[in-house]
Amino acid sequence: MSLDEYLVLLLSDSNLPTGAFVASSALESYVQHGLIPTDSSASKAQGVLDFIRKSVNTYAALNLPFVSTAHAIVTSLQGRDGVQRVIGQLRELDALFESMVLNHVARRASTTQGVALMTLYERAFAEEGESGGEVPAMRSLVEQLRQSVRAGSTYGHLPIGFSVLTGALGLSLDRSQHLFLFLHARSLLSSAIRLNTVGPYVSHRLLLHDVRPLVVDALKASRHLKISSAAKKGSPTSVTEDEEEGPATTWPLGEILAARHDQLHSKIFNS
């Protein structure tokens, strides 16, 4: 088994403390606004699948350019001398993502999960280094980035934290991109079960037969997108020269529903 394959199995573990368990990514709001049919189990399952299709597509279009660019920045680190350069580029990318997320609920969920992933690396996966010796470069990078979040000088959004984790562990970009979308889709189905919209058997049937092609299609559409200037020079960050090839939100209704989450009368998720 290759390192990539082993890391995918490890990072797919639902027991990892990533903060995703408390986020429904607007599904709870979608359900409470009556947008999923309730006349039969089949119609509920189809309604959940329709939500996942729209959510995965907009999630990929907005997040994958940041995942790809942040992964390239992290894996460019060659030693401790480059730590400050990498942190500066990641903070710039993080600030751009903050400006592109359109509602406070999504921002809150994103930073909670991003910081949790960096904490996971630091406490569970980071190399220890020799006693009394220098802290390894990747560990130093994550420690200083988390300190920046605590100091309020950066945000620690999910695509940045995820790429820091996967880049530091040595997971390839292709695997990282696919895993990022798969985990989002699986999280939506987990939320649907907890909302009693579908059962566990239907959820796993959807995950195997219906969600897989949705993830593959979303990945094909967005895997090539990057935030070019941040990856190349660390100059002021912008989308690629062709603005149509940059990150984008493709489902406005989803943004509205996510923003209304805090106004729900009763809820079990934080987003």
Structural account:
This protein is an all-alpha fold. Helices cover 65% and strands 0% of the residues. The protein contains eleven helices and no strands. The chain has helices at residues 3-11, 27-32, 41-75, 83-100, 104-125, 137-151, 158-169, 173-194, 200-222, 228-232, 252-259. The longest helix is centred in the N-terminal third of the chain and has 35 residues, at 41-75. It is globular, with a radius of gyration of 19 Å. The two termini are 37 Å apart. Residues 230-243 have low confidence and may be disordered.
The largest sheet is: none
Can you tell me the residue ranges where pLDDT is under 50 for at least 5 consecutive residues? 230-243
Number of helices, counting only DSSP H or I runs of 4 residues or more? 11
Number of strands: 0
User: How far apart, in Å, are the first and last alpha carbons?
Assistant: 37 Å
Helical proportion, percent range: 55-70%
- Reading the helices and strands in chain order gives HHHHHHHHHHH
Class per helix and strand makeup: mainly alpha
Strand content: under 5%
- From the spread of the alpha carbons, the general shape counts as globular
Radius of gyration: 19 Å
Query: Could you report the average pLDDT, rounded to the nearest whole number?
Result: 90
